[in-house]
Amino acid sequence: MIFKVDTRTGSRTEIERVDGRAHFEFDRTGEGRFRTTWNDEDEPILHYRSAKGSA
Questions:
Q1: Residues in CB range of 52: below 8 A, 6 or more apart
Q2: What is the separation of C-alpha 14 from the centre of its chain, rounded to a whole number of angstroms?
Q3: Is there a contact between 11 and 3 (Cβ–Cβ < 8 Å)?
Q4: Please, what's the b/e burial string for 36-51 (b: 16 or more CB within 10 A of its CB; e: otherwise)?
Q5: How distant, in Å, are the alpha carbons of 4, 25, 32, 39, 53 from that of 29?
Q6: What is the tens place of the pLDDT at every residue in 1-52?
Q7: Which pTM was predicted?
Q8: How far apart are CA 42 and CA 4, in angstroms?
Q9: Number of helical (H) and strand (E) elements in the chain, helices listed first
Q10: Which of 20, 27, 29, 53 is the most buried (most CB within 10 A)?
Q11: Within a 13 Å sphere around the CA of 40, how many CA atoms are in the beta-carbon half?
Q12: What's phi and psi for 41, nearest 5 deg?
């Protein structure tokens, strides 16, 4: 799970959830655009989200 946290109030909002191990890269607006996961052979799989909020 990845949360966006307001550092002044401490409130948090979940912005991403995945099963298993993953690495994210975010754009300037905080939207997760690239996600790297790994298959059973431990080979990386790159996922790209082209539009805001798309799966």
A1: 29, 31
A2: 10
A3: no
A4: eeeeeeeeeeeeeeee
A5: 12, 12, 9, 29, 12
A6: 889 999 999 999 998 888 888 999 998 888 889 999 999 999 999 999 887 7
A7: 0.68
A8: 29
A9: 0, 5
A10: 27
A11: 0
A12: -90, 10
Q: Which residues pair with 34 in a beta bridge?
A: 25, 48
Stretch (H or E) spanning 42:
none
Per-residue tokens: 35:
């996600």
**Token pair recorded at residue 45:** 């799989």
How many Å apart are CA 50 and CA 55, to the nearest integer? 9
Is the pLDDT at 54 greater than 80? The verdict is no
Dig out the tokens for 24 from the structure: 């994210």
